[in-house]
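Researcher: Next sequence.
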Amino acid sequence: MRKAVFPGSFDPITIGHFDIVERAVNLFDKIV
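Model: Next structure:
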């Protein structure tokens, strides 16, 4: 199982944050 950690404050959350998560979904089994 491939896991990734995506740390940050996300205040405010931006389109860029969503873009990174969408790309990571294809590469990892679990994103925290």
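Model: Strands lie at 3-4, 30-31. The chain has one helix and two strands.
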